[in-house]
């Protein structure tokens, strides 16, 4: 399905297409995350932790940004879907940022 292959499309697309896919990611995240798009955080986690190409990181972070924007103005009690996912994604981001720093 589209949701299962979405991150791969973002990662492998050219810059212009990636920008358009980010607009799509915003809509999918707003409407479908977390219930109808539960695997996206696992995909982001896997891409960030295993892929060493900058385009893979960029694509993952752009999709993650769209998901985070969904919760930007929500109350703390309404951010459960994001909080559970961030427990797994933030340690990988910290590790990657540490690698960039050294």
Description:
The protein is mostly helical and 102 residues long. Helices cover 77% and strands 0% of the residues. It has helices at 2-12, 15-32, 40-50, 54-70, 80-101. The longest helix has 22 residues, at 80-101. The chain is globular. The termini are far apart. The model has no long low-confidence stretch (mean pLDDT 93).
Q: What's the SSE blueprint?
A:
Layout: H1 2-12, H2 15-32, H3 40-50, H4 54-70, H5 80-101
Helix pairs in contact: 1-2, 1-4, 2-4, 3-4, 3-5
Write a short abstract of this structure.
The protein is an all-alpha fold and 102 residues long. It has helices at residues 2-12, 15-32, 40-50, 54-70, 80-101.
How helix-rich are the residues, as a percent range? over 70%
Give the overall average pLDDT: 93
* Biggest pleated sheet: none
- Euclidean distance between termini CA atoms: 39 Å
Radius of gyration: 13 Å
Count of DSSP helices? 5
Report the β-strand fraction as a percent range.
Answer: under 5%
**SSE order in H/E notation?**
HHHHH
Shape: globular
